[in-house]
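tmp note - Ribosome-binding factor A
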Amino acid sequence: MAQNRFHSGNGPSQRQLRVGELIRRTLSDVLLRGDVHDPDLNRHSITVGEVKTSPDLKVATAYVLPLGGQGAEDALAALRRNAPELRHLVAKAMTLKYAPQLRFVLDETFDRMDDTRRLFADERVRRDLDAPDDGTDED
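out:
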């Protein structure tokens, strides 16, 4: 079996990252222009935060969130309903051998960032962070 000499490890390959970013930009442009003729979808201003592709580049998972986070489930349903048309529009703008199947997932990174900020604002955490280092090792 042939091995990839340039990629070792568990993370995505350079090609997966490049194609994912290209799909992200293309999908963002398609959604921004309102090329899909669905009033439910065009009602939302959708941010495409990231696109992760499978190793064979045949499946692309887009992490999306409507602007302000309002109506996230409705926007996700509209995206899933229009996935074949979005796939066609994305594939038309790209030069890939196969048009990737598009899957849509809500992007929760903003929620995690808010939780992290809240955690760092907690008085007990701030007290631990501000504690002077006395130079002793507790190993």
